[in-house]
């Protein structure tokens, strides 16, 4: 294959498939009204059919590529690159994806660029860089025993999160009861149809974002850093990865401007910063899980489950008037802070320790590799 064409294929596949999703909608849309409740809250312009069809169609070639990576004749030892060169490459990829992500969100109010992202990443990894997907924790033909261990890991993790959150929710309910009572009276039943989005959240969103950030970005940053075994470098790259993942969600707050085309209105800045911090924190936790397990399957499934349950539970609060929060008194905040401070601190410490603890308990190879590194032994490389 022509060398220049090989380097262009990831970009051509992404741009071409993203343009198809963006423009070939054929006007097929299911109109919604306020009587449709939560679905109308999420899709006030209606549900476009074609982006969903394109996503399903693209699943087939993507699945073929993932399950037939040996046909790319990958070398046993991929060449190492300098961190600076990789960051330049990733920055170009990141900006291009953000542009199309913004345009598609503008049109559909949904992230339908995900399968195009997967095309981009697969061709970049397998064709251009010639690296096995196993290096990024995505093992296509994993035996049932590995899946079983991953599911057990997720089950234990959910149990820990529920146990840690329960006392905090109880304290919040007791302290803010007058306001909570008003909010509860406005809650609508959650829309069960939202649970149907789990395959999309897992296959499209989960694979694209986890492969891009926890796999491709994080693995390359640490593998090409000669000093990664130092604690400072380890924490820096995890925080850097989490920040970039948070910035990936900025397109939700970008609006069209005739003067500058892209603009972020002042009223969008506060929720945008909140979104960057919250998604960055989620990305940090996913990074820790990946670091100690080296299994992208776990983070993909958790990502899909998190997004689906978040949308499902969020559908209950779409039509709530949150102005009642303004009636919360300073005495309530102080009381909540006093009662919840210790559970919050304990919960945060336990939560950050859990990924490593579970990886050790379930005997993941990723934990063993990390445990034997100079970082853990407090040695210098």
How are the elements arranged and paired?
Layout lengths: L2 H21 L5 E2 L7 H5 L4 E2 L1 H18 L15 H26 L5 H15 L15 H32 L1 H10 L11 H26 L7 H17 L7 E3 L3 E3 L2 H28 L2 H19 L15 H32 L3 H7 L2 H4 L4
Antiparallel strand pairs: 1-2, 3-4
Helix pairs in contact: 1-4, 1-5, 3-5, 4-8, 5-8, 6-11, 6-12, 8-9, 8-10, 8-11, 9-10, 10-11, 10-12, 10-13
Overview of this protein structure:
With 381 residues, this protein is mainly α. The chain has one domain. 68% of the residues lie in helices and 3% in strands. A two-stranded antiparallel sheet has the order 1-2. Strands 3-4 form a two-stranded antiparallel sheet. Strand 3 and strand 4 form a beta hairpin. Helix 6 runs parallel beside helix 11, helix 6 packs antiparallel against helix 12 and helix 8 crosses helix 11. The C terminus is likely disordered.
Characterize this entry briefly.
The chain has 381 residues and is mainly alpha-helical. The chain has helices spanning 3-23, 38-42, 50-67, 83-108, 114-128, 144-175, 177-186, 198-223, 231-247, 266-293, 296-314, 330-361, 365-371, 374-377; strands at residues 29-30, 47-48, 255-257, 261-263.
How many separate domains?
1
| Distance N to C terminus | 40 Å
Mean pLDDT across all residues, rounded? Answer: 87
Class by SSE composition: mainly alpha
List keywords for this structure.
mainly alpha; disordered C terminus; 4 strands; two-stranded antiparallel ribbon; 14 helices; single chain; two-stranded antiparallel sheet; 381 residues
């Amino acid at each position: 294959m022509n060398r220049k064409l090989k380097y262009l294929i990831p970009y051509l596949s992404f741009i071409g498939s993203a343009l198809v999703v963006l423009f070939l909608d054929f006007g097929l849309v299911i109109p919604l009204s306020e009587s449709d409740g939560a679905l109308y809250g999420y899709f006030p312009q209606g549900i476009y059919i074609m982006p969903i069809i394109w996503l399903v169609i693209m699943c087939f070639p993507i699945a073929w590529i993932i399950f037939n990576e040996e046909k790319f004749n990958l070398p046993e030892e991929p060449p190492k690159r300098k961190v600076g060169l990789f960051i330049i490459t990733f920055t170009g990829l990141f900006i291009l994806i953000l542009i199309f992500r913004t345009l598609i969100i503008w049109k559909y109010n949904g992230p339908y660029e995900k399968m195009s992202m997967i095309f981009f990443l697969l061709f970049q990894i397998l064709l251009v860089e010639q690296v096995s997907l196993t290096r990024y924790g995505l093992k296509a033909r994993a035996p049932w025993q590995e899946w079983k261990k991953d599911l057990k890991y997720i089950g234990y993790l959910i149990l820990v999160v529920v146990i840690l959150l329960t006392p905090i929710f109880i304290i919040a309910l007791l302290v803010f009861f007058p306001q909570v009572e008003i909010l509860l009276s406005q809650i609508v039943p959650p829309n069960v149809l939202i649970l149907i989005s789990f395959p999309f959240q897992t296959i499209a969103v989960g694979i694209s974002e986890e492969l891009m950030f926890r796999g491709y970005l994080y693995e390359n940053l640490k593998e090409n850093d000669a000093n990664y075994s130092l604690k400072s470098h380890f924490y820096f790259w995890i925080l850097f990865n989490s920040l970039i993942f948070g910035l990936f969600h900025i397109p939700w707050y970008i609006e069209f401007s005739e003067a500058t085309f892209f603009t972020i209105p002042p009223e969008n800045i506060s929720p945008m910063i909140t979104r960057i911090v919250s998604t960055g924190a989620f990305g940090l936790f996913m990074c820790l899980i990946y670091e100690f397990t080296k299994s992208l399957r776990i983070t993909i499934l958790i990502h899909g489950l998190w997004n689906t349950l978040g949308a499902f539970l969020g559908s209950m609060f779409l039509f709530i008037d949150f102005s009642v929060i303004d009636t919360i008194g300073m005495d309530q905040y102080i009381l909540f802070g006093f009662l919840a401070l210790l559970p919050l601190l304990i919960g945060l410490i336990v939560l950050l320790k859990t990924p490593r603890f579970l990886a050790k308990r379930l005997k993941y190879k990723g934990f063993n590799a990390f445990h034997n590194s100079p970082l853990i032994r407090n040695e210098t490389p």
